[in-house]
Each structure stands twice: as C-alpha cells, then as structure tokens.
Amino acid sequence: MSGKSKINVFNKMTKTALDEEISTYVAYHRYYQRLIAVKIVSEGNTIADAANILGKSYQTVHRWIKTCESK
What we know:
Structural class: mainly alpha
Largest sheet: none
Order of helices and strands: HHH
C-alpha cells in the first residue's frame, strides 16, 4: 500500500495538540534509552552491542555509560 492514508486521525485531536503531546514524552524516551543502554552493558554486553540494539552510535552509548559511571 502506498499513497495517502484514508484514516483521519485529527477528528479528536489537532496537529498542534499531537505535536505538544509528542514533545512531552521525548525527554522520557531519551532517558529510557539511556537506562536500557546501561542495563545492556551491566549485563555483560559490550557498548557496541548496546549501540546496535538501540540503533545509536557507539560514541553516543559510550558517552552515556561514562556519564553514568562518573555519578
């Protein structure tokens, strides 16, 4: 299937309201990803494994782990 969807998701919510709702959860999602990365590494996996699982770069996950380690 390609093309535009015939589903109208904006019957009950405006595009602006949807954008606001999404922005509310972005910070939580980022924090959640960091926690998952730390968990993966703490279970004996490598930083590279965590990066691959989460779809993030090695450098990003490495930075998260080092930040966690220093606190």
